[in-house]
Amino acid sequence: MHDAQAECVCGSIAPGRQHHYWDCPIAATVVQNITANLPAAWCSQPATRPALLREHLWLMQTPAGPRRMYQGVWKVVCLAALNAMDVGRKAALEFRMQHRAPQPALPIVAGQLSITSMLQPAVPTPHQQQHNQQVQQRRQQQLQQETARRLQDAKQKAVARFWELLSDFAVMHAAPDKWVPRVAVDHPFLCTEPLINHIVLAPRTA
């Protein structure tokens, strides 16, 4: 994010925090997944704006709704979401850096001429020009296809990371005991399972 010439795998130039943790399609996929698991009973669905805003995640503010989500659960959701977005960002960054990596140059001895410096470039024929253009177009198409595939892969990794963190939180019984009577059995993301008296991962709707 400190590189002014950086480019996100989605095509955004000089992306910053606003991009990587909200605007980027990778981050947006995480937000969409969270929104899809917010029942109307727990989160209002206004027609004039999205149900989930940036401050809900960045400032850990629980979305307004007929029923209010437990603050502790929502904090876990926010932390998992930002971590998941960062996992997606790193996956996309790895692909971008691979294509920006400079090719290693051959060592040059001072005063020594290269044989290629004695060659005069020939003017390409129309057939050669057409062939070169076709090759360039195929390479560009392949790069676009690979970029789209890597973007989709980064989205999947981000969403998988989000649910993995929530699952780990539940499996390791990381929730304080005082949460149990305060978290409803139908609470989104993390809920109370009365049979074992523990916080568990809530059923997913998307």
Keywords:
206 residues, mainly alpha, two-stranded antiparallel sheet, 5 helices, elongated
Description:
Strands 1-2 form a two-stranded antiparallel sheet. The protein has a domain of about 130 residues. Helices cover about 50% and strands about 5% of the residues. It has about 210 residues and is mostly helical. The longest helix is centred in the last third of the chain and has 46 residues. Strand 1 and strand 2 form a beta hairpin. The protein has five helices and two strands, in the order H-H-H-H-H-E-E.
Given helix and strand content, the structural type is mainly alpha
Q: What percentage of amino acids are in beta strands? A: under 5%
Query: What integer is the average pLDDT?
Result: 87
Q: Count helical runs.
A: 5
Order of helices and strands: HHHHHEE
Summarize it.
The protein has 206 residues and is mainly α. It has helices at residues 17-23, 25-36, 54-58, 71-100, 126-171; strands spanning 190-193, 198-201.
Give the helices and strands, then pairings.
Layout: H1 17-23, H2 25-36, H3 54-58, H4 71-100, H5 126-171, E1 190-193, E2 198-201
Antiparallel strand pairs: 1-2
Helix pairs in contact: 1-2, 2-4, 2-5, 4-5
